[in-house]
Specification:
alpha/beta; 8-stranded mixed beta sheet; two-stranded antiparallel ribbon
Length: about 260
C-alpha cells in the first residue's frame, strides 16, 4: 500500500521558515518534518511514498536526490587524478520515493487527483506533510479493511486553543479554567486510508479535499473515523515548532516509535 503525502502548500503561517523551503521540509531535530512522518510509516512496513509537491518542489527533489550522501560516511578520493567515492557506512532508508510536481496553486484534492496514475487500482494511505503523531498504522489499516468503506480518517481530540469560560445567563463568569483534552470536538488529523474509487469524487485542481470530496462520502455513509488517543501535533507556527524541538531534544518525542 502506497503512502501519499500532501506537501505542496505555501505554509504561510510559518513564513519565517517556509519563505526558504516547503513547510514539510522545515527541520525538526535536524531532519525535515516529512522525514519524521515517513519514519513512522516505515516502522510499520510501508516504505513506498508519493509526495504531492508544489511550492518550491525542487527543494524536496534535491533533498531525496542527495539523501544517500547525507546519511552515509563517504570518502572522496582524488589522489589518482580521479574522482572516486567510497561509501563506508550506509544508513539510508529502504524507501521508494516518487516526488510529483502537482502544481503551484493546486488545492489539496486536486493534488490527489493528479497522482491517480501513480496509485493505480489499490487502496492508499494519505496524510498531510506537517503533522507528527504516534498513530498505530497497522491498527488503522486493519480498521479500514474491516469496515469496508471508501475512506478512513484519523480523528483526534485536540482540545481548544483558549481558556474555557462558564458563563451564567446574566453574563457573569462563574468559572474560568485552562483548556483540557476533554474540551473541543474530534478533528481530522490526516493519517487516512482511501479506496482508489475515492479519487473519482475529486473534480479538478480547484477541489479542496476537506470540502466536497470528504463531505460527499460522509453523506453517503462511506467515511469512517479511526479514533486516535495518543499523540498528534501539527507544526503550523514557529511556537509549535519550538515545542516539538524541545520534545525531540529531551528524548521525549512521542512520535518517535522507531529505533536509531
Amino acid at each position: 500500500m502506497k503512502v501519499v503525502i500532501l506537501a505542496g502548500g505555501f505554509g504561510t503561517r510559518i513564513s519565517e521558515e517556509s519563505q526558504f523551503k516547503p513547510k514539510p521540509m522545515v527541520e525538526l531535530g535536524g531532519m525535515p518534518i516529512i522525514w519524521h512522518i515517513m519514519k513512522l510509516y516505515g516502522q510499520y512496513g510501508f516504505n513506498e511514498f508519493i509526495i504531492c509537491a508544489g511550492y518550491k518542489q525542487h527543494v524536496i527533489k534535491e533533498y531525496f536526490a542527495d539523501y544517500f550522501l547525507h546519511t552515509s560516511d563517504i570518502t572522496f578520493d582524488f589522489t589518482n587524478g580521479q574522482n572516486q567515492m567510497i561509501v563506508h557506512r550506509n544508513n539510508s532508508e529502504k524507501w521508494k520515493v516518487t516526488v510529483v510536481d502537482t502544481g503551484l496553486n493546486t488545492m489539496t484534492g486536486g493534488r490527489v487527483k493528479r497522482i491517480k496514475d501513480y496509485i493505480g487500482d489499490e487502496p492508499f494511505m494519505l496524510t498531510y506533510g506537517d503533522g507528527v503523531s504516534d498513530v498505530n498504522i497497522t491498527a488503522l489499516v486493519d480498521f479500514h479493511k474491516k469496515h469496508g468503506k471508501l475512506v478512513t480518517m484519523s480523528a483526534y481530540n485536540a482540545g481548544q486553543r483558549f481558556g474555557v469560560l462558564d458563563i451564567a445567563a446574566d453574563g457573569s463568569i462563574k468559572d474560568f479554567r485552562e483548556k483540557t483534552q476533554g474540551d473541543g470536538n474530534l478533528i481530522n488529523i490526516g493519517y487516512m486510508v482511501c479506496q482508489p474509487e475515492f479519487i473519482d469524487y475529486i473534480d479538478n485542481d480547484t477541489t479542496v479535499l476537506e470540502k466536497k470530496p470528504l463531505e460527499t462520502v460522509a453523506k453517503i455513509g462511506q467515511l469512517m473515523a479511526y479514533k486516535h488517543d495518543g499523540f498528534w501535533q501539527c507544526m503550523d507556527t514557529v511556537r509549535e515548532k519550538e515545542q516539538l524541538e524541545k520534545m525531540w531534544a529531551k528524548g521525549e518525542a512521542p512520535w518517535k516509535v522507531w529505533k536509531d
